[in-house]
Design a protein that fits this description.
single chain, 769 residues, alpha+beta, Aldehyde Oxidoreductase, domain 4, 4 domains, seven-stranded mixed beta sheet, six-stranded mixed beta sheet, 33 strands, 25% helix, globular
């Protein structure tokens, strides 16, 4: 069978996952630098491109079922309150209203790791769920929501992490305001000894704001019961995780829930978990016996479905005059929102640079605001901004070029787990990026440019995981006409998963791409794959596709051997046809083989291999930014970004460019404009739409150059690919911040770097033009 069950470990987002599952033990020749590939790595146009640009792609919003009705949610207008009473009598009288559920008439369903219920009478943030209405039309839903009368007991609230840690702070839970009871800490070496060895020392505090995912497609579900079986069309990054969560909430078997997701308009981590809205829709659909559609609006997106937590980070580091780091400390505090999440951001400091003496502490606190949730490299974007800013400060203090300083402190091994890396080409990334940006031409003296518009260049490093792992499965059906169908329970978030899976199958089977169909995102018809997050999708699923294709090729070779009456070693295979080596006229193509076998289709299922023991799997990279800063207006214009990365094998150059452009643009938004704003007097969110919550537009996008220095990591899988979703964003904000300092000679330590912060910093430094 060439498979066995093994325990595996790999990082998903910031958590080490331990899984048990069937893994492949086949060992085809890995696709390393010496392997010439015909399809993989090429800039193949995405499979779903036409559907999306033509408007024929079906998203969750587009699902229409017979007799379908609509649902909308009444949300708390207060940051902290308890419900004393709900009166929905007037709402029931609205024409078209079919059902109203709340804590008054729905059995309590545990949610958020049992810290609350689907409808909790204790409301902990503006936007917490109070009731849900189902009606024939959205207009009827909205009218009914306005007529529901709720008597609230208004409670004291807290909306910043600093205030939440005060002794007299309002408490969201009886256990206090620290999410896990105490800070998460890490330490190696002797900090005191490291301080003694240092010849120069820097200490600084940095902060970042809460950022909202704000994907183009909002969260939503369409649900339908057929007897005791539930089908959910959901905008999700994890169909199997949603299935399991919904089944657990409704107390029904997993096999009674089917989750389907074909296309998605973005997620960035906000759709890795099931939403309360899906359970509410399922309850309504069961009670009224009709399908229910529930789609959140933009305001709900900004209040209730997740965010990147903020941070206040205090870092101290010391170095010798020769550039050797002697110690590093990183203490961070962040607001995780009203329900359990993590605001930790010290992983880059723990692992990025060689440092024998290191201490980190991450504290996450509850506040009366929407819950934190994984957001494209959770923790790493915030932590890298602070760490890389500090590294530039320390390099300047010892009189060393910032790039030279980083190269001096390259880490050869993972210092947390004490393991060698499967590959590490960070030095090559530094060199390639520096050459492309013209690093030697930057300002030697920060802020020394002439005129009110100052230009500067900066850089930052990146480390992430993205190696993926099992279990992940892919089924391959080979049809009698020579076409193939790849089926897997993973998700395409808009990143091109459909396309790269077809490319891998086409590469092995040596058949045209247009002869391959791909089905993803359906728990009812697809074999299991994990959630699409943590940059793990390509690295987890494409090896399973290759495994299935290699197994199919083995099956075909065996059949061709019997049909042509020669040994398997006497056969050549090319473009779907086996040819006898000694007699080129004796051939058998796929169609002939299957006809002789009396088969309409051949089926194989491939599995992801286990990760190698004794290695750390990471991605590395560096980004360089050119910026202009107008010292009259405080505006920052990013002119150019160069991204040089070590990410294993490139599966599709066009899709890779798309991913990097998207990540860099998102990183630019985090650096310069994105910020959730809460009124401290009322606890209300003031940035609930794109008018007030600013994101980059075409006017803000710089020239972007992507350089890949790697050609495949042959240790991790036969495909050798790692994920690029998170690496594309991690160093961008830090590189821009360092470039701004290089331009104006004044360091900005708080993101986003808005014009008012630039002008205030210049004025405080006495450098305002």
């Amino acid at each position: 069978m060439n498979r066995k069950v093994e325990k595996s470990r790999f990082f998903f987002e910031q958590d080490m996952q331990e899984t048990v599952g069937e893994v492949s033990t086949l060992k085809p020749k890995p696709w390393g630098p010496d392997v010439k590939l015909d399809v993989v790595g090429k800039p193949v146009t995405r499979f779903d491109g036409y559907d999306k640009v033509s408007g024929t792609a079906t998203y969750t919003f587009d699902i229409k079922l017979p007799r379908m009705v609509y649902a909308r949610t009444l949300r708390s207008p207060h940051p902290h309150a308890k419900i004393r009473a709900i009166n929905a009598k007037a709402a029931w009288e609205v024409p078209g209203v079919l059902d109203i559920i709340s804590s008054d008439n729905t059995k309590s369903i545990p949610w958020y790791r049992n810290t609350s219920m689907i409808f909790d009478s204790h409301l902990r943030f503006e936007g917490d769920e109070v009731a849900c209405v189902a009606a024939e039309t959205l207009k009827s839903c909205e009218e009914a929501l306005r007529l529901i009368q709720v008597e609230y007991e208004i409670l004291p609230f807290v909306v910043t992490a600093g205030d939440a840690l005060k002794k007299d702070a309002p408490k969201l839970y009886d256990s206090g305001n620290v999410t896990w009871g105490k800070p998460e800490t890490y330490k190696r070496g002797d900090i005191k000894q490291g301080r003694m060895e240092s010849e120069e020392l820097v200490e600084d505090t940095f902060s970042t704001s809460v950022a909202i995912h704000n994907a183009t497609e909002p969260h939503g579900s369409v649900v339908n019961w057929e007897g005791d079986k539930l089908t959910v069309w959901d905008s999700t990054q994890a169909v199997f995780r949603v299935r399991d969560s919904i089944a657990a909430a409704l107390k029904i078997p997993d096999s009674h829930v089917r989750v389907i997701k074909k296309y998605m308009g973005g997620a960035f981590g906000s759709k890795l978990s099931a939403g309360k809205y899906t359970v509410m829709a399922a309850l309504l659909a069961r009670r009224i016996g009709r399908p229910v559609k529930i789609i959140l609006d933009r305001r709900e997106q900004n209040l209730a479905v997740g965010n990147r937590p903020d941070s206040v980070q205090r870092l101290t580091a010391g170095a010798k005059k020769d550039g050797t780091l002697t110690f590093l400390t990183h203490d961070a505090t962040g607001a995780g929102g009203a329900y359990p999440s993590s605001a930790g951001c010290s992983w880059p400091a723990r692992t990025m640079y060689r440092c024998a003496n290191m201490k980190a502490s991450d504290t996450t606190v509850y506040i009366n605001a929407g819950p934190g949730r994984a957001y494209r490299a959770p923790g790493h974007v915030q932590g890298t901004f602070a760490l890389e800013s500090l590294m530039d400060e320390l390099a300047e203090k010892i009189g060393m070029d910032p790039l030279t300083f980083r190269m001096k402190n390259l880490a050869d091994t993972d210092q947390v787990f004490k393991l060698p890396y499967t590959t590490k080409l960070l030095k090559e990334s530094y060199e390639a990026g520096a050459k492309e940006i013209g690093w030697q031409k930057r300002n030697r003296t920060p802020g020394s440019g002439v005129g009110p518009v100052k230009r500067g260049t900066g850089m930052a490093s990146q480390i992430w995981w993205g190696g993926g792992g099992p279990p992940a499965y892919a089924t391959l059906k080979l049809n009698r006409d020579g076409s193939a169908h790849v089926i897997a329970g993973t998700q395409d978030l808009g990143t091109g998963t459909y396309t790269i899976m077809a490319q891998v199958a086409a590469e092995v089977l040596d058949i045209p791409m247009d002869r391959i169909a791909v089905t993803l995102g359906d728990t009812g018809t697809c074999p299991y794959c994990g959630g699409s997050g943590g940059s793990t999708t390509a690295a987890s699923v494409t090896p399973a596709v290759r495994d299935a294709a290699e197994r199919m090729l083995t099956k075909l070779r065996s059949a061709a051997s019997a049909i042509l009456e020669v040994s398997e070693t006497d056969l050549n295979y090319e473009k779907g046809t086996f040819t006898v080596k000694t007699d080129g006229k004796k051939k058998a193509d796929i169609g002939t083989i299957m006809q002789k076998m009396r088969e309409q289709a051949l089926v194989t299922t491939g599995a992801r291999n286990a990760n190698p023991e004794g290695f750390a799997i990471n991605t590395f990279g560096a980004q360089f930014a050119d910026v202009e800063v107008d010292t009259y207006t405080g505006s920052i214009r990013v002119k150019r970004v160069v991204a040089a990365h070590d990410i294993g094998r490139v599966l599709n150059r066009k899709l890779l460019e798309n991913q990097f452009h998207g990540g860099i643009i998102q990183g630019l938004g985090f650096a310069l404009m994105e910020s959730r704003v809460i009124d401290p007097n009322t606890g209300k969110v003031l940035t609930t739409d794109f008018h007030d919550y600013k994101v980059p537009t075409m006017m803000n996008i710089p020239e972007i150059k992507v350089i890949i220095v790697s050609e495949g990591d042959t240790r991790i899988s036969a495909v050798g690919a790692k994920g690029i979703g998170e690496p594309a964003m991690i160093p961008t904000a830090a590189a821009i911040a360092n470039a701004v300092y290089n331009a104006i000679g004044v360091r900005l330590r708080s993101l986003p770097m808005t014009p008012d912060k630039v002008l205030n910093a210049l004025e405080a430094a006495g450098r305002k033009s």
